[in-house]
Amino acid sequence: MQGLLLLLILSSSLSAQSTLYWDLNGTTSGAGSTPTGTWSSATSNWNSSFWGTSSTVKWTSGSNAVFSAGFDATNAYTVTVSGTQNLSSLTVSMGQPTFTGGTLNFNDTSPDIWTISGSTATINSAITGTNGLTKSGAGTLYLGGSAKTYTGTTTVSAGTVQLNASNILADTTALSVETDGTFSLDWGVSETIGSLSGSGTVNFRTGTFTTGNSANTTFSGTLEDSYGTFVKQGTGTLTLSGANTYSGVTTINAGAIVAASNTALGSSTYGNSIASGAALHLQGGIAVTEGQFSVAGTGVGGTGAIRNLSGNNSLDAALDLTSNTTISADAGTLTASGQVNLGANTLTVSGAGNTTLSGSITNSGALTKTGTGTLALTGSSANSFGGALNLNSGTVALGKTAGTVALAGSAINIGDGAGAASSAVLRLDASNQIADYAGLITVNTDGVLQVNNFTESINTIGGTGLIDLSTSGYLTVGINSGSSTFGGSIAGTGTLEKAGAGTLTFTSDIAIAGTLTLSGGTLALSNADLSAGTLLVTGNSIIDFGGTSSLDITNLTISAGVTLTIQNWATATDYFFTQFWTGATFNTAGSSPMNQVVFSGFSGNNTSWHAYDNQITPVPEPATYGAGLLACLVATTLIRRRLALRRR
After folding, report:
1. Domains of the chain: which residue ranges?
2. Which residues, if any, are the signal sequence (predicted)?
3. CA 20, 22, 24 angle in degrees (round to 5)?
4. What's the pTM?
5. Are 457 and 438 in contact (CB under 8 A)?
6. pLDDT tens-digit profile of 67-124?
7. Phi/psi at 528 (nearest 5 deg)?
8. Following DSSP, what letter does each residue of 144-208 receive, concatenated?
9. Between β-strands 222-224 and 19-22, what pairing exists: parallel, antiparallel or unpaired?
10. Radius of gyration of the chain (CA)
């Protein structure tokens, strides 16, 4: 039965060249139980009969070599190759031959080494040829000794190919391991190949297995090891979609690895790295868990050292930046849940897709956001990085656990001044996300600070962009008594509070539909008109009218015992209107709350709220103005200014 099977194998697999069988038994049937001998053109160690019953002959160059004749060569034996022997294929049907010395030159268009189940072959001889090499059969082929310099693809279609020495395959070899095949390295052996593909098994044990050239390939099989190292080099892309179990580190020196399964990078380990110009790509809705990655650079073609290609994918690993680094999401959402250690470097997050960083971001580096997608800073651990947030475009959403710091850096820049209006948005997704000690928040012309119905306290703010208080948001400025100058606009019906001993200066006309709260310090109007739905004064405060300015309030409330001081106010130049004043009486002075408003140069007892125009002024009016003329002038000016405010 076994002989019949072998005949079928040989008839279906051997090329059209002549076939010779290794035979040291002469005309006796079989090759001998231990047929050790020399393979040369001068020795008659071959038989043209499958059974080994014919007279032995010399080797014919280019023939198919079968080891051995018959079925009696069951032991280990040595074949010494003399010089260079040309052959089309090599089949081991019995025993465990070791080939040593010389060179085996495969000159067939489809060279093949076949080891039948239960047999092994060890080739320590050199192997040459230009058409690659295919390992067939369920047996094992060991390669060691001299370098195997043949070119083309190495295909393991069945059985096992094991390398017993380091770096014996050509570095340019394309390795294809098919479903029934296994490619392995012996203990302590390392190897470099040109590319990897197939669906079989690769086991690199404790060695370093390096692959990669300019080709794009997919390996859907299994990568195994015993704490070895897997290295990707070359400009091509290697897609790993199988259930890999290797426990060693992954080093991406060039090109890209596409992780297309949860275990694409094996089991979790520390010491992985992505070099500058290289990349790790994720796709297909996967969750990759690793201990740590060292990351550098902007990836392949500037598309990101870590890049989300499609789907919602997660990477649970600490990321240590060794230089300025880019993470991008083309589509879907990339969630990185480990700690991000910036060092002194800048992390740029880009792309049209979304990115979530849910771990802590640490050290002195900076964070830059580009692209139209959203970067979400989430999780329960505080960010402590000391550099700036530069939000050039897209959205940064602050969604850490309420009260947990998402931003604490030296500066927060919303918009770069080059984009369309509202093309850069800093949005609160939870309350109290910005540290009270954080640096200046600058909202540029293309920027929006979106409170999003949450509560936030900041120290200083500037710029000419938009503050959106939303319907019920609460933004406090000056929490550490910082001074700010803002020349943009304010939207929404929420609350803006001026706190602390510093000064908040408005340099543009601003309409606050909600509430403006003054709890301390100075509100300065620099040639600016300010309107608000409600002005709530809860602490001793100053309003400074600089240049020609007006303050138009719908509802005014001043807390008991609090003084509002008005500075640099000039009659018929500056105006303070309110339609409703809690507890106040028209045309009355000398009592609370009217006397809680103190104009510089007057006492609080001189302050009155005029029924004819809703203006708050010190009285008596200057003698140069007749009451009627003054009322006419003020009423005319009031109408003009209110019309102007409505047009805005």
Report:
1. 313-450, 462-635
2. 1-16
3. 130
4. 0.91
5. no
6. 999 989 999 999 999 999 999 999 999 999 999 999 999 999 999 999 999 999 999 9
7. -130, 145
8. -SS-B---SEEEEEEEEEEE-STT-B-TTPEEEEEEEEEEEE-TT--EEESEEEESSEEE-TTSE
9. unpaired
10. 41
